[in-house]
Structure prediction request, 510 residues.
Amino acid sequence: MYAKILTASLYGLEAEISRVELDSESGLPGFSVVGLANQSIKEAKERIHSAVMNCGYSFPPCRITVNLMPAGRRKKGSHYDLAIALGLLMCTGQIPLTPDEDIACFGELSLDGGVKGVEGLLPMMTGLMKLGIGRFMVPAENLAEATLVKGAEIVSVMSLSEAADHLSGFRRLPFVTADGSAAPGGGRELPDFSDIRGQEAVKRAAQLAAAGRHGLLMIGPPGIGKSMVGKRIPGIMPPMSYEEMLDVTRIYSVAGELRAGRPLVTERPYRAPHHSLSAASLTGGGSRPGPGEISLAHCGVLFLDELPEFSAHTLDNLRQPLEDGEVSIIRVSEKCVFPCDFMLVAAMNPCRCGWYGDPVKSCSCSDSDRKRYVSRVSGPLLDRIDIHVVMERIDYEQLDIGGAASPLDSAALRAGVEKAEAAQKERFRDGGFKHNGRLSPAEIKRYCALDSECGEIMKEAYARLNLSARSYHRILRVARTAADIEGSGDIRARHLLEALSYRMPEKYFS
Prediction:
């Protein structure tokens, strides 16, 4: 007998309809899977055998062939288990051969017949919805995630028996029509900039970076507060839109990082990987291509502490994603594209011992040691970071915790960020929204025009600072953001001079 049932294949964040065909015939007992299945699918035979037997069905001693279509594309994932098991029951006559033709099934089977949650359900469902498939059978563990797909008709199951009874009509389970929402759950309490004493110039730089999605590099001795600043930047960024939440949730679904009880990612991501991570962990990849840290930081912050301690090869892999906002992972038989529109925040010591330029502690590094240390971060990568700011030792009076709190707390900084956000939305109200840090050369020419005074300042700075064309554009983008925070329609000299002050300090990189 022959049976078929629908599921999906996932390539990056893009889904494709996958039809599971099963055929049983007399002959020597066997169970073969064809259609470029990976090891997790081939191992499904053992899971399905135990699940079928433990649910009271029989695993017939005949030859069973499973074909995963389209046969020319590689398949991976344990979500095929439920579809294969249901097809097996149909093609061996244990349940009627009358399934819903337009329902896609997902689920991993345990040995006792339970249906367990799977990774990547959200992007698979949204992809199938675009292809005209609107009915889904999902694990009960994934129900909250599935209800994010507006308009989808969903039936959730906890066991193979429930799924078989539903398809056979023996005991129909109710369909739930998703409304595209989910309970966000309790958010984490974000640290406040008021915790940081002094460092007002750095707080201003962080505000500019958050307002225009500019990269930020902090340079300073150990213990000065660089990590504290990085952790607080997500708290001054505007709340995510629902579309951004869905985009981030799709990535986290594929990566298996959705937290239990919180199917929707509602807070801007903050990723702070250790400097020992590999290039594939940073950008994504592996034998089973998946999102890396830069994609997990999509719409949020990627914080790289101790920047020179990362391998040069790993850091240089950031250059193209910073420009394009997406990363392509190419394998022999597939191409996966993951979005990575993140804000890069990095911190580094000025030398290996950390005390170069400090007025109190003396540096123990030689000039060659210091230059060797900072040269681990390539010039092209530094050139792609818009804002460079030096953090210096603060006085005891500034540190005194009994003194007055800093006026630049997160609320005050966020107000300026939201003002700039509103200005950018107004600027692009007739097209796709874009932050100043992502302006193209044509858009820079249109929105970052300089008057004669600013033109002379920029001309002199271009020659004296030996700027590249990329640096020139990035300075104008930062100046545009400074003007937006102030509510100015034009870039003034003070905005341009502030942007110029954030370029690479010669003291540390020469």
Remarks:
- The chain has a mean pLDDT of 91.
- The first strand starts at residue 2 and ends at 11.
- The first helix runs from residue 39 to 42.
